[in-house]
Amino acid sequence: MASDIEFVQYVCEQVNETGRIRYRKMFGEYMVYVNDKPLLLVCNNSVYVKKHECLVGLLKESEKGIPYKGAKEHYILDIDDKEICSDVINLIEPLVPVPQAKK
């Protein structure tokens, strides 16, 4: 089941104070970019974030799941908790590079 565009827009509203937000449809689901960095994956109306070492303390009690077949386990982000969302993005945004355009 693909994510609803309304849910993706809600995700973007929840994190809009963390930087420049945009989303892009990818493989039938969505990637949310913060400052041009792919940080949040929206699949089946759930928000996934890669497991980074810096998130262990913050998200140790969070639900985990696999966003799509063949993916590694991710944290499932409680998108309704703006404070947690902001903390997560502030921790991982400096670690994730801006993707380079393919030549």
From TrEMBL:
Database matches in InterPro entries: TfoX_N
All residue ranges annotated as the TfoX N-terminal domain in the record: 13-73
Identification of the protein by name: TfoX N-terminal domain-containing protein
Native source organism of the sequence: bioreactor metagenome
Taxonomic lineage of the native organism: unclassified sequences, metagenomes, ecological metagenomes
